[in-house]
Automatic annotation (TrEMBL):
It comes from the Bacteria. InterPro entries: GntR_C, TF_FadR/GntR_C, Tscrpt_reg_HTH_GntR, WH-like_DNA-bd_sf, WH_DNA-bd_sf. The keyword Ubl conjugation does not apply. Pfam families: FCD, GntR. Keywords: DNA-binding, Transcription, Transcription regulation. Residues 17-84 form the HTH gntR-type domain. GO terms for molecular function: DNA binding; DNA-binding transcription factor activity. Gene3D superfamilies: GntR ligand-binding domain-like (1.20.120.530), Winged helix-like DNA-binding domain superfamily/Winged helix DNA-binding domain (1.10.10.10). This is GntR family transcriptional regulator.
Length: 229
């Protein structure tokens, strides 16, 4: 007799891991945007109550963030948010941009006409979301476009590394900026046209420009909220 695909124990463990990942993502964004200030102590019970979860996923999420160097555990005091520097933000964008440019070159060589048409449809979905001014669908549409673009290069492991690096970008920050949204749609249109021409240099240049614009927006926001104070 074959074993069941899952048991109540394994199902519960998977759900708990998913919940801890969601909590980690929420805290990561709050730290990156300054909503949770540097040197603040993140209390298990207070955070669990605020997010509407039990203490266990918060504890596991903080363990994850500790491994990323975003928080430190101080004995008898709890988890303290490690301050970010300007260089930290620049390094994050440099890493993302470097990987993304490599993927962009591969995608330009390998993408099919059908995949390019799919990118055009995904960009139209982003434009539609922008008209409705709903940050959630905007962020999702932007994610869908770049996921399809990066996967078209066939370098799945490299795309996976980029996906994990982009965890440090707060999507709602970009999705709430109308100027960024209009620029993203226009840039995507240029990328699609360059892909049809198989113009590697232009696709890579546009990809690099998107991350440069993202860095400028992120730095301006962090200056505004006084993260470095």
């Amino acid at each position: 007799m074959n074993a069941p695909a899952s048991t109540p124990t394994t199902t519960g463990r998977v759900r708990r891991e998913q919940l801890s990942d969601e909590v980690a993502a929420r805290l990561r964004v709050e730290i990156m945007t300054g909503a949770v200030r540097p040197n603040t102590f993140i209390r298990l019970d207070e955070t669990a109550a605020r997010l509407g979860v039990s203490i266990t996923p918060v504890r596991e999420a903080l363990r994850t963030l500790r491994g990323e160097g975003m928080v430190e555990l101080e004995p008898h005091r709890g988890h303290r948010v490690v301050p970010l520097s300007r260089s930290d933000i620049e390094d994050i964008f440099w890493l993302q941009s470097t990987i993304a440019q490599e993927l962009a070159a591969s995608t330009t060589h390998r993408i099919t006409d059908e995949q390019i048409d799919d990118l055009a449809r995904l960009n139209a979905a982003l434009a539609d979301a922008l008209e409705r001014r709903d940050p959630g669908p905007i962020a999702q549409a932007e994610f869908d476009f770049h996921r399809a673009f990066n996967r078209a290069g066939g370098r799945i492991k490299l795309a996976w590394f980029l996906l994990h690096a982009t965890r440090y970008l707060p999507p709602q920050l970009f999705a709430s900026d109308e100027a960024w949204g209009a620029g993203a749609v226009a840039s995507h249109l240029e990328i699609i046209e360059a892909l049809r021409r198989r113009d590697v240099d232009r696709v890579v240049e546009l990809t690099r420009g998107q991350f440069a614009d993202g860095l400028t927006l992120m730095m301006a926001y962090l200056d505004q909220v006084g993260l470095w104070a």
